[in-house]
Amino acid sequence: MRRLTLLLIAGTFACITLAADAQEVHSAADNAALRYWMAFAQMKDYPISREEAAKLDAVLAGGPWDEQQFGALIEQNKEALDTMIRGTRLP
Fold first, then answer.
1. Is the CA virtual torsion 77, 82, 83, 89 positive or negative?
2. Residue 73: which residues within 8 A CB-CB, separation 6 or more?
3. DSSP string, 33-86
4. Could you give the CA distance from residue 69 to residue 2 in angstroms, rounded to a whole number?
5. What digits encode the pLDDT tens for the residues 20-58?
6. What single-letter DSSP state applies at residue 40?
7. In this predicted structure, which of 7-21, 30-44, 53-67, 70-84 has the lowest mean pLDDT?
8. Separation of first and last alpha carbons in the chain
């Protein structure tokens, strides 16, 4: 009986150790793709006209940023942007 108890304790300890190691390697919290997915889920809709969309396309192409016009877009999505930034630090 004593051997069986020691064997069960040793086996349980080994399983806990293996599970902890596997969790460190494959933790969902350490997955950048999941953080990006969460960031997109946090994004808030911001209605824009075709003209504003063209201006944003110009910004993406290297044009000037208009804080007065688009600053609210950034502020509304700050939480999503922060989540995305944290995702860039993960594998």
1. positive
2. 46
3. HHHHHHHHHH-------HHHHHHHHHHHTT----HHHHHHHHHHTHHHHHHHHH
4. 75
5. 555 555 566 688 999 999 999 999 987 888 998 899 899
6. H
7. 7-21
8. 47
